Amino acid sequence: MSWLNGQPCDGLPVHDRGLAYGDGLFETIRVVGGRVRLLERHLRRLEDGCQRLAIPVDTDQLHNELAQFCQALGQGVAKLIVTRGTGQRGYAPPQPCQPQRLLLGSPLPAYPSQHAESGIRIFSCETRLAEQPRLAGIKHLNRLEQVLARAEWHDPAFAEGLMRDISGRVVEGVFSNLFMVVGGELLTASLVRCGVAGVMRAEIMDRASQQGLAVIESDISYTELLQADEVFLCNSLYGIWPVTGLAERVWPVGPLTRKLQVVVADLLSDS
After folding, report:
1. CATH hierarchy code of domain 2-106
2. Averaged pLDDT of the chain
3. I need a surface site. Which of 67, 144, 165, 203 has the fewest CB within 10 A?
């Protein structure tokens, strides 16, 4: 199931800048019973990204199209892509531009329930995230760093990969955000240089604060990660996966991780 600018379609025009240059943004959205989970967070991040890339977007139009598409989809994953539209050869953005809105529907990934229940081991990727503050936090279409990182392992014993920046700081997973617990405080990586500001990450930070938990965004070294009391990953499709192993380090599934799984459980229910 796919729509382009509100109409059923088979794909984008071949001269679209999203294909040529990755000139655009996307959101990967959980849909339950025809309704969007974390709708406002997804639209807020997309709008922020469009402002930073100077892509004009009508948020009300996006909201209405997304609601209609997800109602038709019913259950699964909606991928919303906004590109700058078509243009002539060359990097210079067309003036004015005519953005394209692409919606793609698919089933929910069949993640094993054991990932959330028993935890996962993660692979330490050699591919590093480039530091580009102008793109940090937004979900732009260029995901080649993640493609290279995910190609580094094939062993099913690893459910995710750990990504660091070029200075060696811990940033995130290949398709998730990372949290760790130290002395009862919740820490997550600062995303001022690179990385994606996930909507589940933001939701966890807000809900943890409402529970009276201290939440800190800071630079995290690899050594600090290995010394953490608990580690978990999150995204908007699977919620929270406890991390139980990285290289030689082994963690238990900790009490704060379990508490936060309960706190966000409503976002993962089928009702």
Report:
1. 3.30.470.10
2. 95
3. 144
